[in-house]
Amino acid sequence: MKLIIAIVQDEDASRLVSSLMNDGYGVTKLATTGGFLRAGNTTLLVGVDDEKFDGAMAVIEKVCHSRKQVATSPSPVAGTTGVYMPYPIEVMVGGATIFVMNVEQFVKI
Ligand code: 2BA
Hints:
With about 110 residues, the protein is of the alpha+beta class. The protein contains 2 helices and 6 strands; from the N terminus they run βαββαβββ. Strands 2-3-1-6 form a 4-stranded antiparallel beta sheet. Strands 4-5 form a two-stranded antiparallel ribbon.
């Protein structure tokens, strides 16, 4: 058995949960925040039997899209003023950031 930890954009999360559930996967949804953008994203925990792993990954790949987002970054100190001026930078986020772990034990009591 494997545990898929998938960090996805909020825009994709609802459809992804529905698609996984419809295909018979168990899903836990967590509200999370990205360290770089400091913006909300969604982390899904999906425990899957080995033979269903590829199917789950295919669903994630199908549903999650990459998008441009604008982050604000501080500029170098402007001249002699000592003032940092924020300026926008564009980053490409997603489709999904995925960690896969082997599950030693799965217990439901
Ligand atoms: P954030 O940390 O908010 O990052 C959002 C996007 O900003 C990233 O998209 C990437 O395109 C860009 N980015 C992140 N760190 C950067 C940096 N130091 N310099 C320049 N650009 C940077 P994704 O790579 O698709 O990541 C989406 C979200 O997945 C991340 O949101 C974070 O919540 C999570 N994530 C990504 N890599 C991770 C990792 N190694 N460990 C834990 N979480 C991770």
